[in-house]
């Protein structure tokens, strides 16, 4: 048993280090404008580095989605109709990203925001 004690201690320390280094998971929520304007209810979001999920409710009659772009990342959520939720998830490093609607013309009309990861 005394020979196993150093090994058990080393495994406990290693396990604690791995648990402390586990990436953070952040879930953020936004909504499309319910009256059909080409905008989200938020234009700025913040998250910690790691796995980030943005869920966008669509109360509008116009189809929308949510997507993330920047620093080599480009992820698209599915386009949803009224009552649906579009979700996008990406593993993000510190920096600035754009979240936007990828339906043609929507981002250009103003349906976008900045996601700051730090």
What would you note in describing this structure?
The protein has 118 residues and is mainly beta. The protein has one domain (23-117): Cupredoxins -  blue copper proteins (Immunoglobulin-like), CATH 2.60.40. It contains 1 helix and 8 strands. The strands form 2 sheets. The protein has a 5-stranded mixed beta sheet, with no helix packed on it. A hairpin with a 2-residue loop joins strand 4 (67-70) and strand 5. The longest helix has 16 residues, at 5-20. The chain is elongated.
Order of strands across the biggest sheet? 2-8-7-4-5
CATH superfamily: Cupredoxins -  blue copper proteins
Query: Please, how many domains?
Result: 1
- The chain-level mean pLDDT equals 89
Q: Oligomeric state of the chains?
A: single chain
Q: How many β-strand runs?
A: 8
- Shape label: elongated
| Corresponding CATH architecture | Sandwich
Secondary structure elements and pairings:
Elements: H1 5-20, E1 24-31, E2 44-47, E3 50-57, E4 67-70, E5 73-76, E6 85-92, E7 95-100, E8 112-117
Parallel strand pairs: 1-3, 2-8
Antiparallel strand pairs: 3-6, 4-5, 4-7, 7-8
């Amino acid at each position: 048993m005394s020979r196993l004690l150093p090994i058990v201690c080393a495994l406990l320390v290693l396990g604690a280090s791995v648990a402390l280094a586990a990436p953070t998971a952040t879930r953020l929520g936004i909504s499309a404008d319910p009256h059909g304007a080409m905008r989200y209810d938020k234009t700025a979001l913040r998250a910690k580095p790691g796995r980030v999920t943005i869920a966008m409710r669509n109360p509008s009659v116009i189809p929308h989605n949510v997507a993330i772009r920047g620093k080599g990342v480009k992820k698209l959520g599915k386009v949803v109709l009224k009552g649906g939720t579009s979700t996008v998830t990406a593993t993000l490093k510190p920096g600035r990203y754009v979240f936007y609607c990828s339906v043609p013309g929507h981002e250009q009309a103003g349906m976008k925001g900045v996601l700051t990861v730090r």
